[in-house]
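Researcher: I'm preparing a figure for a lab meeting and need a structural model of a single chain. I don't have an experimental structure, so a prediction will have to do for now. The sequence is pasted below. Please return the structure as tokens so I can convert it later.
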Amino acid sequence: MGRRQRLRPTTLADRVKLVWLWVEGVPVRIIAQETKTSVTTVCRWVRRWQQEGNVNTKQRKRKASSIHDELRNPLASSDSTQTLAVAGMAVSDVLATVSYPSSIIILLTDGSTSAATLFKTGLLQLPWGVCILEVKVHSADLTNKTQEAVSKMISDARTLRQQSWSVTVVVVSDDTDFLATFAECSVKGRLLVWSTRLLAVTNQPLPQLHQLRKTFSMTNSMLLVADNSLRSVYVHFPYSTQHTQALRIASWSPRQGLILTSHFKLFPDKFSILVNGPTLVVAAEQFKPHIALVKNRSLRTDPSFTGPMVNLLKILAKSMNFTYTYVRPPDESFGAKLADGSWTGMVGMVGRGEADIGLGPFGVTATRADIVDFTKELITETARIMGGRGLPEVNPWSFVLPLTLPVWAATLAALLLVLVTAFMFPLSGLKTSSNSQSFLDVAFGYIGIFLQQAMQVPSSLWWEKLMLATWLIVMFVISKSYAGNLMSNLAVRYIPQPYQSLRDVLDDHSVTMVWVANNAYVQYYRSAQSGIFKEIADSEKKGRIMYAKTSEIPAIIDVLVRRGHHVLIAEDRYEKVLIAQDFSRSGRCDFYSSEARFLPFMSSMIGPKDSPLIPVISKSIKAVTQSGLYDYWTQANMPNASSCAFPPTKMTVNTSLGFRNLWGMFVVLLGGLTLSLIVLALEIIAAQVNI
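Model: Understood. Here is the structure written out token by token.
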């Protein structure tokens, strides 16, 4: 019987690797062979990971190992070349606790940490990938050249971060200026998004690191300070004051390993509940039915709002533990990008950091995404055309409308054919009953039948009788149809709603379009390169577009749109509110919205670029929208919205007809009399000439 093979003790890297293989579905026996451990050892560490979430060793009563003895008494020198060596095991334990096997570690140093130190600490032996980037600092003060090198390092790290699923950045330095420069460049270079964790390792005492407070409080970052035998892990919480101390959430020692010292976990979700209870600045502007400005009758100058978006903001404030104040944009607009690259409105305020949140809701566009981040979608808005409904009226030419143009043309063609037949047959030598009568008498006879007059047409022959009978039947059907439709047309009043699509508006050069200034729709058609929206942009140069603030829109529709020579193009819900408000005042449906809908936009709240508030707010928005609560708030904030949703386009009346309804027939009479006078004058002249 052979000697039993002696198994070596497992290292932290071995334990992480065997758990990783087990998660990937590798059989336990294969894991034992690859890690050179026993099946019992594999099962024990897998069980430990399932129960406690880590694979750290527990403290035993025996004497600590030599490496722990070494780390228990670190070098007294503050030389940064020893920083990672002193805190190496603590860093490894932190990363092993919070990182996934497929994570990537990006190690950034000031050039004082060698690869040998990394191997000694075990960072390069763990299952994750490690990328090392360094900038050598040769003087106490960072030169411009060194700052450029730091920015280049940040750019390379960001590129790697964008191509990786899970990233933890570890920056190691005892140079406070280097750490401060790194913090500034990492924010400008957009390296530290919330999904990227940052662990800064230094020997400098905590009071010397006050320059890092602002960056570390607003990012997913921790400080590991190794200034004594006890390695402490600190967290800066968001919106803390300059004199607020960082909170120690964990400690590490060779004997006890990594121990949490507070109820916060490593890399805590600092923005789910803001422990400092800050006051956030919220950019808002009225946009019914989502948010409405409350008229302030007191001496306070701070604006106040109400509506569904305010209800949502109150839920966020209560769940996240913050208060808020409103700020309105100077131009009262949502925001658009100007030709010089600057931004107006609320989007510009949030993008420049003048506000923490933009309430909106804002249309999601690629152009706006360059300067702000959007939360989860609240609603989807579409645009429609709002125009003034004309007064009920009778068309003065309604006596022509009972028959369509093809019917009128066919009737006149048939009359002409009958007259030609009656004229040509006598000329051909055929026997007719009209040989003794002039052609004009016969023609006026058929025309008299067409006009429902009692006229006599000679028809002693059978072919003449057959033609006359056919003409009488056709004229009987047409005349009865005409009379019936004419009575209906005179009794029905039509309400014109001419603009049902953008093409209708563009083709009528007498109408002016009204758009809300600097919103997503304006930004879109100004950037269009072709199509109907390019035509709209071109019409601005012709003076056919009028821009207005949201506070000016009610007065504009009451005067300009009501008259019919202006139309408002805005969001569907906004137009419903305007129409409902006018109905509540007047009791009439004087406006309509077009059948065509266009430019659908997802709408949401906004925050500064890479703001950690956005993921937290999105979770609450998802809960509110999925429960139908936001739609309920919106409908409740739109009274009488359905009263004019489908206004009739025609109506039947029993009132007397006025001259304005029938002047077309008098025009025909006047034209006929004028023509008769002209013919009479010609006959008199002709008679005098013959004499």
